[in-house]
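batch job 7 of whatever, protein = fructose-bisphosphatase
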Amino acid sequence: MHSAAASPFYQLVPFHPKFQTFQSKTPLTTPYCTPRLASISGSAKMRPLRALGGSSSSAGGDGDDGDGVVTLIEYLGKEGIDLKDDLVVLLDHIQYACKRIAAIVASPFSCSIGKQTGVGAGGGGGSSGRDAPKPLDIVSNEIILSSLKKSGKVAVMASEENDAPTWIIDDGPYVVVTDPLDGSRNIDASIPTGTIFGIYNRLEELDNLPTEEKAQLNSLQSGSKLIAAGYVLYSSATILCVSFGSGTQAFTLDHSTGDFILTNPSIKIPPRGQIYSVNDARYFDWPEGLGQYIDTVRQGRGRYPKKYSARYICSLVADLHRTLMYGGVAMNPRDHLRLVYEANPLSFLVEQAGGRGSDGKNRILSLQPVKLHQRLPLFLGSLEDMEELESFGDVQQKVNPGYEV
């Protein structure tokens, strides 16, 4: 969609940094800067991070160094839930793509890349103005698409950066939906960003339909049909949070080896937090119920008799990650966030961690998408906090002065 208008990445960035390359089984050939972490499958001699909660590395023996470290691929294949080989292969390609994005985001040249303009309109289902795609979004989108193609396991990819889904191969067993780089407008301020993804099974009953139609319908599956979802947080550490329907796990990128290392085998969001995350500057545009809820909890007059604090990064993955760790609620009450690419995958993760995802009235995963770029309010957080929030009734902000929809 953007290829005709956008300059290739190597033309956008007139420099030649001396990066190492990943020694992956599936090297990408796109002309983007390939970051220099140590080999993904390389030496395991330097592994400073150990799995929390007493997890041990795979089996001992057979080359295991006995240091208690569990990599993402080891966890998927032997230590964890013993996924199908096809899904392990797909996750291997997704994590590789995210390592490349992490290195580009962290490079000293990312600010200048993010400020490039003139890449054309479109994307994100008619995004314009403050939502217009930036080059980093497009670069990340191309990296993910390339990795999914090389995996051989994906029939269709639907991305926030593309108007329509991309059909890849007829016999791919999976469907991937993704927001390639959420929060990219914050890059030049070094604010955390993230990649969001969800994975569905391909609907084989649609195989006889025309390509465009089956691509669309495969991408519009209800969040209740997700078989996996995750996000990668690009911050002081690069953290992959993922769920396959049996809890939520966190893996942290070890830059000395290039491996994602298991650092939290079972994330449990506290049932009650003391933090709310929302754009308070829009307080006077909020509906009555939402205003009452915020007034109540920050004065310590709610069901939890402590005063809540406001923490707002304006980066969805970062705000959610903090909420998973500390509890509370992260929210955007406007019809702004995308059901397919953001709300469904993140709600799946939160529910698997013991929390709740809601549009303010309904469970997110119970909603049936009707449009690829469908927007809605999004509330994610601790179960008790979410129940209290929804009890105030009118929390969806339907009037959005100052915003283009």
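notes: The first strand starts at residue 154 and ends at 159.
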